[in-house]
Amino acid sequence: MDIIVILQCLSQCLDKTTLGQLSGIVPAMLAMTGRVTMLGISRWTDKGGSYRTVQRFYNSAIAWAKVNWVFIRHHLLDPTDIILVGGDETVVTKSGKKTYGLDRFFSSLYGKPVPGLSFFSLSLISVKARTSYPVMMEQGLKEAAAPPAKKVSRKKDKKPAGKKGRRAGSKNKNRREVELKPYLVHIQTMLKKLLSLIGLDLNLVYGVLDGAFGNNYALQMVRQCSLHLISKLRADAALYFPYAGPQKQVGARKKYGLKLDYAHLPDQYLKETTVSEGIQTRIYQMTMWHKLFPDPLNVVIISKINLKTQARAHVVLFSSDLLLAYDKLIDYYRLRFQIEFNFRDAKQFWGLEDFMNVNQTPVYNAANLAMFMVNLAQVLLHHFRPTCPTFSVNDLKAYFRGRKYVAETLKLLPQRPEPIFIDQIFANIAQIGSINAS
Questions:
Q1: For 398, phi and psi rounded to 5 degrees?
Q2: CA neighbor of 83 nearest in space, from 147, 119, 130
Q3: Is residue 142 within a helix (H) or strand (E), and if so which, with residue range?
Q4: What is the pLDDT of residues 186-219, one digit of tens each?
């Protein structure tokens, strides 16, 4: 439980001064109450952790991706585990006008655009531990609005009335070599940095993204990084069975068969049926075509029916890996939600929603420090979970806060008590404010 020992592995990616500053800031963040700001941290640090020291740390150039990866590799990775790459965006609400990158971004929590900062995070998701470990977090900037395009008259190129087919002179588009929008280029750059950083230490196969990336542009972005995409399509996505009939001897070969009817899914593709609390769940898996994708997709449809009211709903998941089993595809996509718990803990406990920095470097460091604390908390929780499986981050902070109070009290005593008595004091005081006793 010695924080300095736990952080010692970072000596290969942080200089001695920065590592010393981090070793003073981390115990303060574990023990402190209130908003996690530079001033708040400085009030809870020990000797040598003045406000100026904290300020220098926040203004340092730190390679957080390397810091997180070295820490995760040293403390959290299991060589026998399956690791996924997950990505998601979070919006941090901010007021004022001077914070770097401040704009209006859509927040799913509020259901509308709000003034704040946008961050995109890439994490390594452990299938065995069912946990996400954030590695890289970078700020997203609002794209400049493009000037309105001038209308071009196409009267000469129009098809003659009554004729079928495309306009004369139109060419086929290569749907594999698509032009990515700046937002996707930014994410792809992050992916390439992450893969380059990890190198051959991990065999990463799948990238898991939410339904906002259920399109061909996102799929090609991920495939260009040599990963398979797992994501979600719209519930009304137009899917087609592969054509299995006779082909013409002349002309292009047909590849689109019948269109999929979600209300009458073929039983031959049914993989699993369960009933729970009056809800029947059916899982189908099939290889389907989508006219906006250049290659067939591995599609898994989860259909739910209320046996009492006959109300229906379904979810359409897909992957570019045609050999991935339906149960693994569903499980991997569900694990993507672990990133949301990272954001929740970073905002609730580690200052992602609290920082008051306005310049680019301090904003970047404040956000990444919050995500680093998520990884550190996972290491510390492993110490308590064997004896108390429900031990939470709240309990962890109460434990370190109690240690802080006891350590400061012992400094005032004229004579130091016996070690056994000190351990009893630590054990009792650390339980004050905790939810689950260790």
A1: -65, -40
A2: 130
A3: none
A4: 999 999 999 999 988 889 999 999 999 999 999 9
Burial environment of residue 314 by CB neighbours within 10 A (0 to 12, 13 to 18, 19 or more):
middle
Rg (CA), the chain: 27
Asked if 114 contacts 105 with a C-beta cutoff of 8 angstroms, the reply is yes
Q: For tokens 């004022």, name the residue.
A: 96
pTM: 0.89
DSSP for residue 86: E
Tell me which DSSP letter residue 154 carries. Answer: -
- CA distances, 87 to each of 119, 135, 343, 357, 405 (Å): 11, 10, 12, 25, 39
pLDDT tens digits, one per residue of 357-385:
999 999 999 999 999 999 999 999 998 88
Other Cβ atoms less than 10 A from the Cβ of 403: the count is 18
Cα 109 to the chain's mean position, in Å? 16
How far is 45 from 29, CA to CA, in rounded Å? 9
d(CA 301, CA 285): 6
Burial of 86 (0-12, 13-18, 19+ CB in 10 A): buried
How high is the pLDDT of residue 411?
79
Tokens of 389: 């499986």
- Which residue from 345, 340, 365, 341 is spatially nearest to 355, judged by alpha carbons? 365
* Cα dihedral sign, 51-53-55-57: negative
Q: Output the CA–CA distances (angstroms, integers) from residue 201 to 74, 119, 250, in the order listed.
A: 12, 26, 51
29 to 33, 34, 95, 174, 408: CA distances (angstroms) = 8, 10, 24, 52, 16
> 71, 375 in Cβ contact below 8 A?
yes
